[in-house]
Amino acid sequence: MGFTSYVPEGAGIGAVYAADRRVWDPFLEFTHELMRGPSPLSVAERELIAAYVSRLCACDYCAGAHGATAARLGFPAAVLDALVADLDSAPVSDALRALLGFVRLLTLTPTRISAEDVAAVTAAGWGELALNHAIGIASRYVMATRISHAHGIVVAPEKLEEAGRIMADPDWTCLPADRRVG
Hints:
about 0% strand, AhpD-like, about 180 residues, mainly alpha
């Protein structure tokens, strides 16, 4: 069992969100727009950012679910492992490396971000909207890892793989059923 009565054993972060929908439903709407709405970042890139931030924050739950999703969308687990081990030699494009370098800085040492760091991302070919979305994703998943850790969420690896399969579906949404459109 998690650390609270509303997170049963084996439950994911959805149990936290369901405990107080008035508070968490707007957060899920934000998440849906950020992760699946229109963006200069592909869904695969967004999932990779979520998984990367989660690994940097040592959250096995978030990293497992979003890493499995990113893998199903084209970024194998070995890519995530390589990014965490050594961003400079990881098998990603130079543009993505620049964006992920910024994400790493934001995740680990946000007070060190400078105008030069932003300029490096735009010089690599990313527009400001892509940067805006990457900042949103990184910030959202830093928060999710804190929520997960504080609630003692532990989910079996096979459930994380299943979550990745479900979240990789183009029709997937994190919104509660009664808040979905269409």
